[in-house]
Each structure stands twice: as structure tokens, then as C-alpha cells.
Amino acid sequence: MNASRTARDRARAELTREIKEAARRQLAVEGAQRLSLRAVARELGMVSSALYRYFPSRDDLLTQLIIDAYEGIADAADAAVAGIPAADERGRWRAVANAARDWARSHPHEFGLVYGTPVPGYQAPTDTVASASRIPIALLTVVRDAHENRRLAVPDLDLAPELAAQARAVAELTGLDVPPAAMTRAVVAWTQLFGMISFELFGQLVGSMDPADAFFAEAVERMADFVGLRDSDDSHSTG
Amino acid sequence: MNASRTARDRARAELTREIKEAARRQLAVEGAQRLSLRAVARELGMVSSALYRYFPSRDDLLTQLIIDAYEGIADAADAAVAGIPAADERGRWRAVANAARDWARSHPHEFGLVYGTPVPGYQAPTDTVASASRIPIALLTVVRDAHENRRLAVPDLDLAPELAAQARAVAELTGLDVPPAAMTRAVVAWTQLFGMISFELFGQLVGSMDPADAFFAEAVERMADFVGLRDSDDSHSTG
DNA sequence: CCAAAGCAAGAGCAGCGCTCTCGTAATTGT
DNA sequence: ACAATTACGAGAGCGCTGCTCTTGCTTTGG
């Protein structure tokens, strides 16, 4: 009663992994649109029809790669956060933003696969939603920590009722106690971050802020201000 | 010496237009990835090879559609701006943002074509850059007007030297006199706007701020604040 | 009026995703 | 240990794709 009992089971697991690896390799080189089941099979020395024993369709293989990409960028963000003291929420926010950008720049096609135009068939989000939410959760966790530590400069403007309700629903869904106004601002910052990364990767900034290092750094600071994260320097000044 | 002299020229121009129309129709239904030259030819009662008299490749046809899409969203923004008094810069900013979102929601596949993952061959941006810059120019024009009318609350934080240089270069390139700090913030707001629209369209907000009407409205207001656009109400209070 | 150029059509090539069949090998139940 | 079942890879094949090339026909311009 091993984890993988028979030799066939072990072979199947290994081949499934190898197929995904070959596909990811091809994805990194050619992009999602040019990813071809037949080419993956060729690289593995198999015939194309044999792949269908492991993935029912090309879209299912892509869905697996999508999940892996979400996990990859989230792992990078989590690892970056772990390197910053918990008390330095602004530093952690910065770390998540930089990790997301770095990962995107080193995995452009995988980034495009998950944050670009959805694949034609529009894959079911049910499998991907858990992985997809890890990045926003990482950002929200930083905000929650700042709020918990009474270091969040929450703006007191009130929101439209339906927006406040949505913000409260997100707080409940994620189990992260973040006030509606801060929650809304965090989502705004999240969309800004990924819009900026997309623009950089997809060439929308070529005439203006490209190369985007300085712009990115500035934007991250301004968005950290925007969500109410203070500099770790003046964390002592006020209670 | 007519604009189109011969019958053949007229036929060619008309057929080129009809091909683009059929392609756009197919794009709207199926998406860019499923757009097929053969299907377009079929719809027009032609044989597929005949299309190559008008477009050298599928990618060239797509590039034309990309340009049309840029023009379409920019036209929508310009039309919306024209409906708001020039003195109400914040209202004009709002109008551009709403027009962009409305256009994107009514032309999702065309939006994805231009702001999503680039097509595999990565089309030369030279043809598209003029059309692509119309939207950021529309946003910057609003900021420039506010600055000119001394109604822009410019933040006085100084920027990294290379960022300030880039901002000045954009100002020179566009001929729009916007101070570096405001320029940077406008670009941040631009990336936020399109990141938010992308997320709404591509399903990234489904678990949180979807439907996104209230969230979008709030984000637009906060970003208008962010770039320093005042409410039109208090435009009289200060000089 | 005639050569040149533009044109649509058809055949064809290589590639794609996917399905189905078939012989073989591994697994399971008795 | 043997038989029945199941999983598997290979191969052929279908309909589709983008694209090329050749073949006649028509329009154009000198």
C-alpha cells in the first residue's frame, strides 16, 4: 500500500511529470499559442495519440501549466516575504511586488498564459482559483498585519454600499480582517501592480517608461502609500 | 486622378475593407486565436488563397485589426471627453476611464487582442504605436490642462534621476507640458486603469470585486486624486 | 491592340488536435 | 498459476489550419 503501488502507477506519474516539463519548456520558448501536443510528444519520443492517455486535451494540459504558473509566482512571492521581518509590512509589500515582477520577467510566457488573454475555450476557473488567489492573499496578508499592528493609515472616506459589502465579503472569504476602505485600496494596488507588469512585459511601455526599473520602484512606493503602509522608519513614532 | 482611379482599385479597396469586416466579426465571436483565414474567405465566398492578394499573412490581418481596435477605443475616449467641459478636468479623466471600460466590455476580444498576451509572432509595434499612444495621450492631455490651469495638486516628492529623465522625455515626445512627478503618477494611473479592466474582463476579479461597477468607480476617483485632479466643485476655492 | 500586371481558383504541402483500432504488456481476481 | 481485465503505445486517419505555387482569365496602360 505504497503511495504509488505498482510499477505502472509509478511510470504513469513520472511520464505525466515529464510531459508537463516538456510542455513547460516548449511554452517558455514558443509561447502558449504555439505549444503543440505533437511537438511535446516528439520531444519525448512518443506518438501524439499516446499523450491522450495522460491529458484528455491540449486545453487540459494548458490548465495544468496555468496552475503551475500561479503556484510558481506565488511561491516566489511567499519566499520573498519570508525574508523580510514581519514588523516591516511595507518592506513585505515591496517584496511581494518585486517578486511578482521578477518572476514575470523570467517567465514571460507563463505570465502571459495566466494574466494575458484567456485561452479560447476559456478554461474552467474552478481548478485554478485556489492557486490564483495566493498572490492577492499575500498582498492582503501584509495589509492585515499592518492593520492588526495598528500601523495602517486607513483613509476614512466612506464607500458605496455595494462596494463596502463586496470588501467585507472578501475579508470574510479570505479570513483576513481588513477594513473595507483598505481592502478596496489593496485591490486597486493589486490591479495596478499587474497592469504595470503586463504593460512592461507586453511592450506597452516601450515609448515611455521602458526600461521600467525606476518607474516600477516608484509606483510600488506610491501604492504602498496609497494602501496606508507606513515606512518602517516611522513605525515607532506613532502608536 | 481620382482618389481611386480604376475599377480594379476600387474593387481592391472595397474587398480589403470587407475582409477586415468579416475578420472583425469572426474575431468578436471566436476570439483572436480562433480567427481563421479560411473561415473569413468562406464567409466572403472566396477561396483562401485569394486572401493573400490582400494580406500577406494572417498576422498582418491581425495587425490591421489591432490598429483598428486601438483606434476604436481611442475614438470612444475622445468622444467621451468632448462631452465634458474643458474646465472640468476631473470629469474628463472620469470620462476617459469610463469610455475605455465600456469599450472594452463591448469589445472583449478586441481588447484582449491589443492588451492581452501578444500574438506569437509578436507583431512589429511600429505600425501600431501611433494608434496605441492615443489613450495615454488622452489621459495626459487632461493632466496637462489641469496643470496649465493651475488646478493640479502636484505632489512635490522628488523622483529618481532616471525616472525624472524618462518623464521629461515623455513630456517632450508628446508635447504635453506635465511635470515629472505628475507624469509618473499619470502613468501609474494608466497602468492601474488597464490592469483593472483586464482583470475584470479576464475573470481575475470573479471571487472579489465582480461585478466591478462600484469598484471601478471608486478606483477612478482614487486615481484621479492620486494624479492631483481636484473636484470641479472646489476649483474656485483655490487659485 | 498587345504586352504586362492583377486576380481568383485549385491543388497541394506540412502541420495541427483529436479519434479509433489493434496488438501487447501489466495488473487483478480466482 | 492461470484467466480476465485493464492500461498502454503505435499507427492510420479525419478535418482543419496557414501558406505556396501554378494555371488560366480579366483588367490595365502604353
TrEMBL record, chains A, B:
Pfam families assigned: TetR_C_33, TetR_N
Signal peptide: none
InterPro entries per the UniProt record, alphabetical: Homeodomain-like_sf, HTH-type_TetR-like_transc_reg, HTH_TetR, MT1864/Rv1816-like_C, Tet_transcr_reg_TetR-rel_C_sf
PANTHER family in the cross-refs: HTH-TYPE TRANSCRIPTIONAL REGULATOR RUTR (PTHR30055), HTH-TYPE TRANSCRIPTIONAL REGULATOR RV1816 (PTHR30055:SF243)
Keywords: DNA-binding, Transcription, Transcription regulation
Coiled-coil residues: none
Keyword Transcription: yes
DNA-binding region: 36-55
Domain HTH tetR-type residue range list: 13-73
Regions crossing the membrane: none
Protein name according to UniProt: TetR/AcrR family transcriptional regulator
